[in-house]
Fold this protein.
Amino acid sequence: MHKLYRSLLLLALLALLAGTAAASALQRVVDKDNLLTEAEEAILSQKIQEITQQYGVDVVLLTQYSLDGKTAEAYADDYYDYNGYGLDEDRSGVLMLVSLEYRDWAVSTTGSCIAKISDRDIAHLADNFLEPLGDGEYYDAFWQFLGDLEGILARPEVPDAEGEPQKESNLLLWEGIALAASGIIAIIVVCVMKRNLNSARPQNTAGAYVSGGLQLTACQDIYLHSTTTKTRRAEESSHHSGMSGGSFHTGSSGTSHGGGSGKF
C-alpha cells in the first residue's frame, strides 16, 4: 500500500513538473506578423520574465495579421486559453494583441488580473500605447504597455474592514468623499452664521417698500425672443478610439476574462 501511495505521489509530481516545464517553454512574445526584430523580442521577453517573477502573473504579447473573422477581444481570449497560458489555478495573466488587418488591439485579463486591472486601468494603458502603435512603433508600444502594466501590478493592497484587499485608489476615493463632506458642512455653517447677522426682515405687504403708494396705469405682455437649445448626439470615433467590451465576460472555452479592445 505504501508503494502504491509513493507511486501515485511520484506520478503527480512528474505531471506537475511537466506542466511547469511546458508553461515555461511557451513563448511570451509571439510575433506572427514580424513586426519586431529579434533583439526587440529578446528585450521584451526579459521584461516579461521580470514581471512574472515579481508579481506571479503571466504576460503575453501577440501580433497576428488576420483574426479569422473573430473580434479582437474573442481572438485574444481564445489564444490565451487554448495555448496553455497562466501560472496558477486561476491561470492569472494578461495578453496584449495587435492585428494590422483592420488595425485592432485588445488586452485580455484572466484570473486574479481581472480584479487587479480595472476598466480605468485598461483605458490608461491604451491612452499610452495607442500613439506609438498608430505611428508603427510597435516595440515602443509594447514596451510602454509593459512599463504601465508593472506599475499597475505594483500598487499596494491593504485589507478593508472585512479583511478583503482594497486598492489604494479606493482609499483615495474615500478620502476625497470625506474631504467633500467636510467642505459641505463648512459651507452650511457659514450660511447659518451669515443669516443670523442679517437684521433685515421681510414685510407682509408691498406698501412698506413704496413711498406714496403704488398705482398701475397699464399692463402689457411684450414678446422679445425665443431660445432653442440643441444637444449633439455622441458619435463613435474610428481613430485612436476608446474601448469596447465589458469588464467581465466569458470566452469560448468557458474561462472568464476582463480587458478591453479598440482600433488604432
